[in-house]
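Escalated from tier 1: flavin-adenine dinucleotide holo job.
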Amino acid sequence: MIPFEYLRAGDPAEAVAAVAGRPGAAFLGGGTNLVDHMKLGVARPDLLVDVSRLPLDRVEETGSGLRIGAAVRNSDLAAHPLVRERYPVLARALLSGASGQLRNAATTAGNLLQRTRCPYFQDVTTPCNKRDPGSGCSAIGGYTRYHAILGASEHCVAVHPSDMAVAMLALDAVVIVLGPAGERALPLADLHRLPGDTPQRDTVLEHGELITAVELPDLPFARRSAYRKVRDRVSYSFALVSVAACLDLDGGAVRDVRLALGGVAHKPWRAALAEEALLGATVTEEAFRRAAEAELAAARPLHGNEFKVPMVRNAIVATLRDLAEEGR
Ligand SMILES: Cc1cc2nc3c(=O)[nH]c(=O)nc-3n(C[C@H](O)[C@H](O)[C@H](O)COP(=O)(O)OP(=O)(O)OC[C@H]3O[C@@H](n4cnc5c(N)ncnc54)[C@H](O)[C@@H]3O)c2cc1C
Ligand code: SF4
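Tier 2 regenerated the structure:
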């Protein structure tokens, strides 16, 4: 690890000024991702600005939904009574991630901004366009079990690893960002990027922009929601694929639906085509399968992860079927 300075910010504005004014500076949340990367030589910040103890650690009702402070720990968010009652998909996604100890440390903002688990990204002895732009992509033609089937490019085929972000995407979350020029609200759907020819950029955030909160709009039918994660081990393992779903039924038909996928793309993936196919459809496994296939028509699996296409389809069908049965 190279030497670095440490600053505990007193308030969000001080944190923003400290990072924005220094190209090598980085915010520090729970450190469960960033500190690992510093040990591996993947990240080399010369200043860590600790934002984990800022007064951004509350979950509050806003009148139109829930505001989650950026420093709220994953464990606290998963256990929050309003989250469990109104957004079970989020509680379940959080609890499916990492381990109890990691969730106690990990923050809401840090979880959203954790970087890919592509093994080549974490191995500084291998070429990787995300870590070292222009060096090549070792995953293409290499080990691809955990890699993308949607939205990838010839420069990077990595996936975003967060479970929480997939649930928040299904819930139409909005990210509140404070930068040197002031505050802005960014739909979570616009936060993460596809790799294109600049895979080194995971998000649209500029250097020095601090996430201060995530807002969840009221979505009454999210009380009937679920998160299904398919993985190699039953715990302590990242998703091969995952599905976040909220389902609103009108008798035997779909009145409304939210569907997002994890483990399939460089960003949490909103399954808009599947949602469109489901609106008004009669609730049958066949309708769920057709909707999944509409989304997956654009899938381009790699040699080594072809299994993900049927896996996503089956996970969507099973998740929606379980939710539909819950409502009967
Ligand atoms: C063994 C292991 C297993 C795991 N399994 C899973 C899993 O199954 N599912 C899953 O979803 N995750 C998993 N994780 C990842 C874990 O969820 C993340 O490491 C964690 O959420 C990151 O949060 P943090 O607060 O520690 O972030 P940090 O490591 O502190 O920061 C991560 C990034 O966010 C930036 N950042 C932090 N706060 C802010 C802010 N307020 N504004 C702007 N930028 C900020 C940092 O600069 C850094 O770039 C696992 C991690 C480990 C080590
Ligand atoms: S998939 Fe992306 S992160 Fe992985 S080696 Fe290729 S460029 Fe790097």
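The longest strand covers residues 241-250.
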